[in-house]
Each structure stands twice: as structure tokens, then as C-alpha cells.
Amino acid sequence: MFRAIRWAVGLGALATVVACSGGEPDPSTGEGDEDLTSLTARQRVLTFEGTVYVAPNASEAKIIEAARAQTQTAFGALLNAEVAVQSREVQNVDPASFRKRPVTVVDVAAGGAGREMLEVSYKYTDNAVVPVAMSRKTSLSLALLGQGHVPKTKEVVELCTKNDKEAREDAEAGLLWYDFNPSKSSCRKAMEQEQRRIDDESGRLEDPRKMVPLSRAERVYLPVTMQLARAATATRATYPEYDRLFTGGAEPGVLTVAIVNGRLAHDRVEARKDGGYYEWMAALDVIFTEIPGFELTKVEPAADITTANIEGRRYDLKFSDFIQWTVYGSGWPSGMPASSRDDIAKRIADTLDGRWVTFEKKVKVQIGDEPEKDFTLRIETMFGADTDPAPHRRAVKRGDVVLYNGHSYIGYGPLDPDHFKPSSFSPGYQLLFFDSCVSYNYYEKDFFALKEGGSKNLDMITNGLEAPEWQSGEAQGAFVAKLIGGTMPSYQTLLKAAQATDSLRVVDGEIDNRFNPSRTRVKLTR
Predict the structure, then answer these.
(1) With 0-12 CB in 10 A as exposed, 13-18 as middle and 19+ as buried, what is 121?
(2) What are the strands, taking DSSP E only, across 386-487?
(3) According to the 3-state scheme, what is the secondary structure of 431-493?
(4) Going by DSSP bridges, is the β-strand pair 254-262/307-310 parallel, antiparallel, or unpaired?
(5) What is the pTM of this model?
(6) What is the model's pLDDT at position 230?
(7) pLDDT digits over 4-19, tens only?
(8) Whole-angstrom Cα distance, residue 298 to residue 381?
(9) Which CATH class is domain 18-37+236-290+376-519?
(10) CB of 359 closer than 8 Å to CB of 278
């Protein structure tokens, strides 16, 4: 759920002045083409079966509710097995799969007539991604939490989670499903003990065809086999729709890259002490090093970040100075005493916190046989995003390419699809890269449904697993620099640029893209 903070530094190489599609040798042809959707993952169709017990007259809605409460617990089990499913929190329960059986639930130890209930078995099916190392696996032996786990939450936390402060707090907040790990040896031992008791009591029933022991209906753990079947995977090089990006979608003649960086510290601290501020500066450092010539054009809300008065002296400043101070601890204004450095760094960081900063670079673009045209590369970016969806709404509305680096808030934060509607998006083709934990599960499926035209107008890059903070800024910057640098690389090449933080990272929506550098030449002169 949370990501370790990173403080190291990386730097990209200088780019050439003129580049065009086809100018870069692309490793995405030949035997390794199955890596195009992801460098580290393979697509699979995942299925498993579960069982719930409900009142005899339970409505279909109540049955779905009970089944979803159970399937949700597969989230942590799969996450700990390095498998991610597409449907948010594993909620894709299909009533058509229900198999119902009236039963009498009997407390074998206490005796008595028992109570009537409805046993409902279901089959769960979802798209999933697995690590390349698991590409030959066809099944996983895991477990769900049964309907009797709630009174035993403390025991489950001790036996089937890391049992650390975070896991205990999650359980108190109703998030045990996120941390549940049935693969732990202590958890497997508890499951085996429970199963022996269930088997023993089942053997003592008067009519096993119509009765089930209470220990089965209120079991804590439900062992399941997760089946993994092959799914369609890209077998050729796939590309962003560069001809559409370099025409301008949100604004004609402009390619807008909207970059939102969230706060990473779990307790709010001043901007420059938050790891997210460092990662923001590190990303911009890579972009501006690889593609020189971007100029600061706007700060919103308006603020003067070009001068500062410290200890009675006035200093002229550039944005590149802020990057140098933050990333390298150097580049301080000439003549500035060491006593002033901490003050000026804090002032600038506090001023930038929550403000949008816009950079632009004028270039020329030629698409196919059309005449060369003036074009603008624009970066709109901000640091300081937290739970407020407003920065993300702005980015999605104005950006042709949108990148987010920050916490996922278990899918219920600012990028919750409920905060968006079809009119929230910019017109035309967009590329969204949500570099947060388990974003494949939280956002991928719903955003395609929201965007007009679905995958024909939207590509998404998401993470199947928890993503690291360490090196996330450099990885993000390298991705952007490669994307807008002019070589028109394949998705495989773009993913390699950001590979330092690859956590089962996948691209979706790209299979139906029409752009191919062998058919359409896009030339960028900068």
C-alpha cells in the first residue's frame, strides 16, 4: 500500500536536435514481441470458485453482496502472490454463475435441529496479469477469507499478515482484505487445522446431502485454486498514436503533458521534506536535460519565483536552480552565504507547493507528406496533490498525456473513477500513466468505460503491484523525455525507459492503435 521513499539521483543523456520516426533502432521486433504490452507481466484469464451461505429467502442483491465480500479477500492473496486482477477489488461477481442449494446448517458439537440456509456457489472470472516468471503456471493454491473471519480478525492478522502496525491499522479500518496472505506458513497451518475439523464434523452429519456443519458455513478460511488460462497478448510492436499526439488534441498545435506529483510522506510535512517534492524535481531534471530549451511561461496561482530577498540581498533565480538545490545540493546563487540556503530552499518549495507550473518549447512537426508546421511542447505540472481530485480533473481535462506519481489511497482517493465522467476528459486521443500502487486494479477498467470511444481514444499504463518511490521521479522523467523526444518509440522502448520502477507495469488500449512508423512518418525538429 505504501512505498519506501527514495533520495538517490539519476540523470539522462543529452538528446539530438532533429529526430523522426524510424530514427531509433527499436528492440520491439522479433522474438521478444510478446513483451510489448509489458516488460514484466503476461496477461491471463483468472478463475476460481467460492461458496457463501445466506438466508433462504435472500435476494440476488444480498447474494451478490455476500459473494463480493468474499471475493474481495482474494485481492491480498493475489497481491502477495504477485498477481493483479483487472476488476476493482475483485468485485466482478456474475450472478449467472450462481448454483444454489437449500441446506440445514447444524452445530455438530452442540446438537439441535439446525437452521435453514441457502448455499450459493459461484465461479469468478477476471482478467489478470502475472509475472513473466509465472508465465508457465496454470494454477495457484491460495485461499479466501470465509464468512466467519470477522470475529477472528485478530487471529487472522497474527497468522495471515505481516502483523505489523500497518496491517493492524488496516484491519481496524476494515481493510484486512488488502493484507491477507494465505501463503504464510502460519496461515496454512491454521487453514489445515480448520479443514480437519470441518471434515470431521461433515462425517458426523445424519444426511450430508442436505446438511452442512456450522464450522463449514462459518469457516474462517476457504482454500481455493486460482486457475490461470492464456489470454490474448500483443504479438507485434505497438505504439502510441504519435500522429494524433503531434497534431494536438486538447489544443490544436500543442502537445500538453500534464504531470501531477502527490505528497508521499504519510504525515503532512513542508514541501521540501516530502519525498514527492524530490521526485518531482528529479523528473523535471531528466526531461530538461534530455530535451533542453523548455521555458517557464506561467505559474498558477500567480507567484514570483524569479527573485528572492534573503538577509537583505536580492537574488535572481531560475527554475533550474531549484532542481539543482533539490536533486544535487548545489547551484546556489553566487555569493549566497550558507546560512541563507536553507531559507531560500524552503521559501521556494513552499511557494511551489500546490501551484501549477507551465513550461513550453517551440518545435516544428511534419506528419507524412503534409507541410512542416510550428508546434508547441507544453508541460503543465504541479507538486502537492493529496486527496483532492481537483488537480487530477484539471490534468485529465487539459492533458493529451497525463502522468500521476503518488499514493493510490487503495483506489478511493482523488483518482477514484467516481470523481470523473465522460465530459471530464480532453477531446480526442489520450495517454494516461498512473504510477501508483496497484493502479491496474483500481483504475484501469473504469477509465476505459468513462472515456468516449474507449480504447480507440485512450491508452493506459498502470501497475499491477505496489510500486516503489525510489527512482520514481527519474523513471517518470525518462518516460516523458522518450515519449516527446521525437524518435516515436514503441511502448516496449518507453517501458524500458521507466523500467527502474516497473511493478508488473502494463499498457492497455494500445492493441487497436493504428500508428506505425513504417506507414506514417512523424518528424520532430527541435
Answers:
(1) middle
(2) 401-405, 430-435, 458-463
(3) EEEEECCCHHHHCHHHHHHHCCCHHHCEEEEEECCCCCCCCHHHHHHHHHHHHHCCCCCCHHH
(4) unpaired
(5) 0.84
(6) 83
(7) 322 232 323 323 233 3
(8) 11
(9) alpha beta
(10) no
